[in-house]
Automatic annotation (TrEMBL):
<dbReference type="GO" id="GO:0016301">
    <property type="term" value="F:kinase activity"/>
</dbReference>
<keyword id="KW-0418">Kinase</keyword>
<keyword id="KW-0808">Transferase</keyword>
<comment type="similarity">
    <text>Belongs to the ROK (NagC/XylR) family.</text>
</comment>
<protein>
    <submittedName>
        <fullName>Sugar kinase</fullName>
    </submittedName>
</protein>
<dbReference type="InterPro" id="IPR000600">
    <property type="entry name" value="ROK"/>
</dbReference>
<dbReference type="InterPro" id="IPR043129">
    <property type="entry name" value="ATPase_NBD"/>
</dbReference>
<dbReference type="Pfam" id="PF00480">
    <property type="entry name" value="ROK"/>
</dbReference>
<dbReference type="InterPro" id="IPR036390">
    <property type="entry name" value="WH_DNA-bd_sf"/>
</dbReference>
<dbReference type="InterPro" id="IPR036388">
    <property type="entry name" value="WH-like_DNA-bd_sf"/>
</dbReference>
Length: 429
């Protein structure tokens, strides 16, 4: 959903006339966004374009303010190749992560750099949707105001621990938040339009997605599973979220809800789950289960208390986490059997406690079929609590990486000589 509906049409008209040029600019910008600073020679090698084409493309991106060039260092004979790098402060995505305990926000610049992070506890009131929406809007305003002059906001992207309908961002079910059929994106849009802040660009994207999906995208592109094409990501929180990358693509399913690993059955007749069923994986290994296992009351303690109990060597806590580990391994065994991932990334509390539960986890993971188990390497999340912010931001960069100059023109409200002459001055949805 976009703040202004006219912008997408405008961009389609403006960009339709030179698809090849647009695709070539996109290829170069994508390379720089994901690989960082590269020499012109690197770009020639990676894209297969000739030198003069690369020179002309990087110049156009530089004129748009998205990249900068500097002289390279001489290596061997001949002239040094110019180094081209993404300008992290040229554009930014405002990425958010709503969990059962907090709203986290980040301003992420081109190149995937996290330029600013804010975390605010919502202290046990995730059910209060209005409050959460207001927190996101306030943080978005604050972080946007801190962006350097001229940095263009591309998108606001919200990660939610739940099933989020696409493309309208309706949260169908988020058991850990107590949300059902919450029109999160529409509410956020209304909040941003009604507050007194300066208008965001009419063409700015506002969207929401699942925390497990964003997590697996982040770890696959920039984290512990970089370069691995088949990845399973599992995040321990109050609920358990997951995401799957198959052959380099995010697994979506028919409704975009694939990867709800928290609700696979691991113990028939087990603990009641927030979804209404019993014995779901998240009811057995989510944060509340971990707190009970270490001898704490989930109503009075935070997961960090359990993590520090383990860190200071409390025997009861360690034994409790061992128990949890075998239930974690049981769920993972099923998932590994189904998806045959090269890497399994554990995030959230499960990542934090993995070293303690490693033995019992692997003992029950052993029930997965041998050849499949042998290929799956278990690792802790590299991006940790930033994974959802980094992955969500990538969703916000998609349009720019598909059509760098057209997207920028639409966001800046510019119209080129082929355009309709309509200047987008304000939000008009
Ligand atoms: Zn459930």
């Amino acid at each position: 959903m976009r703040l202004g509906s006219g912008a997408a049409v405008l961009r389609a008209e403006a960009s339709g006339r030179d698809d090849v040029r647009r695709a070539n600019l996109a290829a170069v910008l994508r390379l720089l966004h994901f690989d960082g600073a590269s020499t012109r020679s690197d770009i020639v090698a990676a894209t297969g374009f000739n030198r003069s084409t690369v020179g002309s493309l990087t110049s156009e991106l530089e004129r748009a303010g998205l990249v900068r060039e500097r002289p390279g260092v001489v290596r061997g004979k001949g002239r040094p190749s110019n180094v081209v790098e993404p300008v992290s402060t040229s554009v930014h995505v405002l990425a958010f992560d709503v969990t059962a305990t907090e709203v986290a926000g980040a301003r992420v610049g081109l190149g995937g750099y996290i330029l600013q992070v804010r975390r605010r506890l919502h202290a046990g009131h995730p059910r209060d949707v209005g409050k959460v929406v207001a927190m996101i809007a306030t943080l978005a305003r604050e972080m946007d105001a801190r962006a350097p002059e001229g940095s263009v906001p591309l998108a606001i992207v919200v990660s939610v621990a739940g099933s989020v309908r696409q493309p309208d961002g309706l949260v169908r079910r988020a058991p850990a938040l107590g949300w059902a059929d919450v029109p999160l994106v529409a509410l956020l849009q209304a909040e941003l339009e009604s507050d007194q802040g300066p208008p965001f660009p009419g063409a700015m994207l506002i969207t929401a997605g699942n925390d497990g999906d964003f997590g697996v995208v982040a770890e696959h592109l920039r984290g512990a599973a970089r370069g691995i094409q088949d990845v399973l990501y599992v995040r321990g929180e109050r609920g358990v979220g997951g995401g799957v990358v198959v052959d380099g693509e995010l697994l979506k399913g028919v409704g975009g809800y694939a990867g709800e690993v928290g609700h696979i059955l691991v113990r028939p007749g087990g603990r009641p789950c927030a979804c209404g069923a019993k014995g779901c994986w998240e009811a057995e290994v989510g944060d509340d289960a971990i707190l009970r296992a270490v001898g704490r009351d989930p109503k009075e303690s935070e997961i960090d208390d359990a993590i520090s109990d383990v860190a200071i060597g409390r025997k009861r806590a360690i034994a409790g986490v061992h128990k949890i580990g075998s239930q974690v391994g049981l769920g993972l065994a099923s998932l590994v059997n189904i998806f045959n991932p090269g890497v399994v990334v554990l995030g959230g509390s499960l990542g934090a406690l993995y070293p303690t539960m490693e033995k019992t986890l692997h003992a029950s993971l052993a029930r997965a079929l041998g050849p499949i188990r042998e290929q799956a390497t278990l690792v802790r999340s590299e991006l940790g609590p930033d994974a959802q912010l980094v992955g969500g931001a990538e969703v916000g960069f998609v349009d720019l990486l598909d059509d760098p100059t057209g997207t920028l023109a639409a966001l800046r409200g510019e119209v080129d000589e082929q355009g309709s002459g309509v200047v987008l001055e304000s939000r008009s949805s």
